[in-house]
Amino acid sequence: MEALYAITTGILTASGVYLTLRGRTFPVVVGLTLLSYAVNLFLFSMGGLTTHGAALVGTNDQYADPLPQALVLTAIVIGFAMTAFAIILAMRSRGDLGSDSVDGNRTDREDPRENKA
Amino acid sequence: MQHLPIFPVLLPLVVAIILLRKREGADPVRRTISITATALLAVVGFWLVTQVAGGETLVYRLGNWQAPYGIVLVADRLSAMMVFLTALLALGSIIHASGGEDNQGSNFHGLFHLQLMGINGAFLTGDLFNLFVFFEVLLLASYALLMHGGGKARVQAGVHYVVLNLAGSSLFLIALGVLYGTIGTLNMADMAERVSQLPADRQGLVRAGALLLLVVFGLKAAILPLYFWLPRAYSSAPAPIAALFSIMTKVGIYAILRVFTLIFGEQAGGLAHLAQPWLWWGGLATLAMATLAVLSARDLRMQISYFTLISIGTLLCGLGMESTDSRGAMLFYLVHTTLINGGLFLLADLIADQRGKVGTRIVRSRAFKYTTLLSALYMMGTVSSAGLPPLSGALAKAWLMSTATLSEGLWLWPLLLLSGLAGVVAASRAGSTVFWRHSNGERVSERLSRSKLVGAVLLLSAAPLLVILAGPIGGYTQATAEQVAATEQYRSAVLGNVTSVAPGASADAD
Question: Mutating which of A33, A93, A100 best tests the B interface, going by the most B Cβ atoms within 10 A?
Fold first, then answer.
């Protein structure tokens, strides 16, 4: 299970980093979202992976570390708010700057129809 | 007073909630509430400083849970000083903002206090995960404030700032995950205890986690490869926000100082001083780049942003140096540079108001009325920032240079002095253009907003005041440096029930 978990987190991170480095705001926002998913998975696993263990001491011999679960909840909430903000910002910059490039100074040359939509 | 350490977090939160109730406009009532609350925060900050000046470490356990399990707020000399400094800077900014800037968009005052809450929380928390949470609070508020009033330049700078900081937050969480997985705790005092007993096979991972943290804090503090967002963001932000932002980079500096002396400091065994070389060379490189860049600035606010970068380079060098004395000098420089650079941003806005369409660009403009007053203030600020005697910058830089060892001095002295020279050249060129080169025609007399002026003067008056009060303040920063170096006191205060007294307790403080 560890290997599957690690590979999933790795692929998510790689995709996130790749998309974050793109030149347009939409892929960047998607990239940041993927990155935050990967981070949440990573945080969740930081206390070690336990199967069939409740986060309660005393009910079972095996119990999961409750702290990462609490932390990942916080991280999810914050990440969610940040993503919402980033999307609004991307739309705002598209409207204000007339381009969805992250630098805001190039016009949309690739697809002129985008402007009308 | 037992609950004092949580006041600087609760007060802005409550005020922010009150102020957020109505979105639009900034009427006199809300301005009064906002300014009064900030002044009150300054009083609380000063009170906190007087409480800890003797060397006690105040520990506030939320819900009275014992330290490694519960959440703690810790106020020692360093935290108290930063909280007080934040409040002073905020007071100047908010008075300036009440001159009309707060009316450019909605919710200015509420967001301003939320940001103060985040900053104060970051300074006071004794737990790495809570440091992350408070970072997010201050960042979210700063995203909105940076784009307050809108406009192309702000949105453009905002996209970079937001994306970079979101990526930074992800890195922060990864670092926290690695550190928790290997050390087993996120309470800073507890981490410091455990890191010394770490088995050798885990040291590599911990080192990776620690250096990831350095990258995150370096992004906040703007170390060389990570500073490119700063000039644009600071120069396009509304003036009071740019002024408040000059404490934001110091949040990064504070976090580096705290984490890399408390957790990865003297006692950390194989991991001791692992950030030191990065900070030293990174600081020197930042200093060198900013020195060149300040000469190339074509806009007053851009120039002040590079002044800020010079100061960050200097601070990082101070962090990277070996002796505790240089840490004390660096903290004195931090107080000086935060207030002066904040004041300069406010002053630039006053100048822009007078010059009309030209704004802060360094080009010929129409003649304006308050040239003498504004140019005198500008000269005071830049002379102090560049580090010419007799103002505070010279004192701070001289103290820092005097604490350098020979091999450190060989690098630090020339770079620091050259950065001062570049600052003087850039400021005198900009000043002579802005204040003396006018197009022919009528002298325009725009209204000089009184509250904007008061805000700027309040912050710039730090330049002479820091010289006059250099004795007590220097003594306090020196004692702070000694306390930061004596980590066992912090650990025993947080983990045990004792409030022990620092070795440098006899040093007098204001």
Answer: A93
* Mean of the per-residue pLDDT values of chain B: 90
**ipTM associated with this complex:** 0.88
Q: Where are the domains of chain A?
A: 2-48+66-107
d(CA B89, CA B296): 28
The fold of the A2-48+66-107 domain, in CATH, is Helix Hairpins (1.10.287)
B470–A contact, CB cutoff 8 A: no
Instruction: Lowest mean pLDDT of A85-99, B14-28, B137-151, B163-177, name the range.
Output: B14-28
Helix segments in chain A, DSSP class H? 2-20, 25-44, 66-97, 113-116
Q: How far apart are CA B77 and CA B49, in angstroms?
A: 7
CA pair distance B172, B176, nearest whole angstrom: 6
Which residue type is seen at B307?
Answer: F
Question: What is the torsional sign of CA B432, B438, B443, B444?
Answer: negative
Of the residues B137, B152, B163, the best mutation for testing chain A's interface (the one with the most A CB atoms within 10 Å of its CB) is B163
Chain B contacts of A19, Cβ < 8 Å? none
Query: What are B241-288's pLDDT values in tens digits?
Result: 999 999 999 999 999 999 999 999 888 777 888 888 999 999 999 999
The pLDDT-based confidence of B473 (bands split at 50, 70, 90) is: very high
The two tokens of residue B34 are 């906002």
pLDDT on residue B457? 95
